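Sanity check

After download, print the first record. It should look like this:
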Amino acid sequence: MFETEFDRQVATLVAKGYPDMLNLTETDFRKYVEPLKEKAAALATGGREATEGYAPFVLVVKSEWVDCGRAIQLVERQQKAGFSVMDDEDLRRFQPIAGIELPAGMVYLLFDIDTGRQTLNVTPNDALPRLLEQGRSPLTVEEGIALITHFPDLLRKNNGFSLLGSRCGDRRVTALWISQGKPKLGWCWAGNPHTWLGSASCQGRIGIG
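Expected structure tokens:
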């Protein structure tokens, strides 16, 4: 099951043109990510599959290789493309917070991902320590985009999610939600709760090396 899901995600990235953006041929891209396939299979904890609010793993292309502004435009949910209300310069200011170390390389695995239904109507400021106490890690901007690239239906009208793993030094937190039927990348204040906005998290990250 995990091998099949891995192949599906690789095919999704190929179809969206990620190899070209990484300056790789399709063949070289597939060879590059192949070591992650065995690692994805090893994550089979009870054979749990993607369900509402949950994904077992996703392939993440780091934003230093494909910027977030471009990546969100490649997301498609119900035949509608994603968009951002933030410009590329602003998005680049959002970097991983202390305690998050992204694996080396262009692509890595994010695993055991939850969109944060239990943190709906909880401010990002209050949600972060709760997630850390549970031994979980908040998602970065590129990880949130990767999640809905591979599982667009996890983004729901009543469950968008904040991406607490990336900050730029002010009071804003980036978030993904549905606006006019389209996946939207925007921001909210870290101290404001929203009944429709949770805080996404993962169990960890695994690199190729």
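If your output differs, re-run the checksum step. Summary of this record's structure: The two ends are 23 Å apart (CA to CA).
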